[in-house]
Design a protein that fits this description.
By secondary structure, the protein is mainly alpha-helical. It contains 14 helices and 3 strands. The longest helix is centred in the middle third of the chain and has 28 residues.
């Protein structure tokens, strides 16, 4: 009698258990999958993307493996020899300039030397059709503001602020009858104060050739104009049911008066004085303002006298003539202000400066 067939029972997990475990695993993309030619089966595959036809082709046998591929490359070709003025064509064009009016989406027809007469006529016709006098005025003013700010040696944010202020004045059509040079000088002066890099009327006058009284008058008018504009903006926000920002965001910052302390730092730097002497001059300037020893003096005269006094106290003496060449005031004015400060020297200089030996009254010159 034949023995019955033997059945071997597997000791591992059953098929149903393995299937259930596989179904419970979360889906993950298989990053090991590669596109391979089914005819050549080369590894690594020799795949070529033909963007002109939109096909994916095997470089070995020519079999088309895919179609309608998207060309992600740039939309232009670059030829080094033909690249004029280092132009860098962009897919989306230049960003809008907030300092100019309009959508700025017009197309310009270029015309270079050696082009045909028809190209020249097209360029002229296009310029006449799209010519905007207001934009041309703004561009000319911005160029002038940039050159003046470069001459003053101020940061770029001052130039941008001055351009923004000029655009507001231009759009409001204010200050009719005033020369553009005068308005630009006033905008630069206000921008310097707003950006905490104050400049004096004399410095603006030397650069723009606008008289100091005229700069002062335009500055007062501009200050009043921007203050009134801010009040109108706040009123319109309240009428619309909003709440104006208490920090003044969105409004033109109030112009703070220049203090002698602000000028001391720059003048001391131009005189190559140490940080110790600079700090001492700023301390004296603050105390002179508080005590009123130099009441009625201009901030420039006060700053110059404080620097003159601090340079002798710190042992880095600078003559009144040296200080006057930097500050732009006469040496006689500096000496007269120093005479008023000398009797109150104990009140103007902190006692710890004398105790530490960083300052010495014996170094002061006679009045």
């Amino acid at each position: 009698m034949a023995n019955p067939p033997t059945h071997i029972v597997p000791t591992g997990p059953s098929y149903s258990t393995i299937t259930a475990a596989k179904t419970q695993e979360p889906w993950r993309e298989n990053l090991n999958m590669n596109l391979m030619c089914k005819e050549c089966k080369e590894d690594p595959p020799n795949i070529v993307e033909d963007f002109s036809a939109g096909d994916t082709v095997c470089g070995s046998c020519g079999l088309v493996l895919g179609d309608r591929i998207v060309d992600t490359r740039s939309e232009w070709r670059t030829f080094t020899n033909d690249d004029q003025n280092n132009d860098d064509p962009s897919r989306v064009g230049d960003g809008a300039n907030p300092l100019l009016n309009g959508a700025q989406l017009q197309t310009n027809i270029a015309f270079v030397g050696g082009a045909s007469a028809k190209s020249r006529d097209l360029s002229r016709a296009q310029n006449k059709a799209t010519h905007d006098k207001s934009t041309q005025v703004l561009l000319g003013a911005y160029k002038h503001i940039g050159s003046l700010c470069d001459g003053l040696g101020v940061p770029k944010n001052v130039s941008d602020t001055a351009k923004h202020l000029f655009k507001i004045v231009h759009d409001e059509n204010a200050f009719r009858g005033k020369s553009q040079e005068t308005v630009i000088a006033g905008c630069i002066f206000i921008a310097c104060r707003q950006c905490k890099v104050p400049r004096t009327f004399r410095e603006i006058f030397d650069l723009t050739k606008v008289t100091k009284p005229e700069i002062g008058r335009v500055f007062k008018h501009l200050e009043k104009f921007f203050a009134g504009r801010n009040e109108k903006m706040k009123a319109s926000i309240v009428e619309a049911g909003g709440v104006p920002d208490p920090n003044g965001s969105g409004f033109n910052a109030a112009v703070e008066a220049t203090t002698p302390k602000d000028l001391c730092l720059r003048f001391c730097s131009q005189l190559n004085l140490s940080a110790k002497c600079t700090t001492l001059s700023q301390d004296i300037a603050i105390r002179a303002e508080t005590t009123g020893d130099l009441a009625g003096r201009s901030p420039i005269s006060t700053a110059a006298a404080c620097i003159y006094m601090a340079s002798y106290l710190a042992g880095e003496a600078r003559s009144a003539k040296d200080v006057s060449s930097v500050a732009g005031v006469s040496d006689g004015t500096i000496r007269n202000a120093f005479k008023l400060m000398l009797p109150n020297k104990e009140r103007l200089v902190k006692p710890e400066w004398i105790k530490d030996g960083r300052a010495d009254f014996k170094r002061l010159p006679a009045a």
